[in-house]
Amino acid sequence: MLALRLARGAHPLVLLRRLMVAAASAGVGFLLLCTLSYAVAGPHPSDPALLRLAWCLAPLAATVQFAVAVARTDPGARPRQGLSAVGLGPVRLTALAAASTAVSCTLGSMVALLFFLHLRGDLTGMPFDGDAAELLAAGQPLPLGAVLLLLALVPVVGAGAAALALRPRRSVWGEGIDDDEPEPAFEAPPGGLPWGVALTAVGAAVEAYAGRGTGGGGGTPAGVLAGWTLTAVGLAMAGPGIAHVCGRVLQSLHPGAVRLLAGRALMDDARRIGRPLGVVSAVVSALIAASALAGERPQPFGPLTGLGAALVVACTVAALLTSALEAKHARATTREGLLDLGAPAGLLRATVALRAVVLLVVFAPITWAVAELAALPLRR
Question: What does pTM read for this prediction?
Answer without folding.
Answer: 0.84
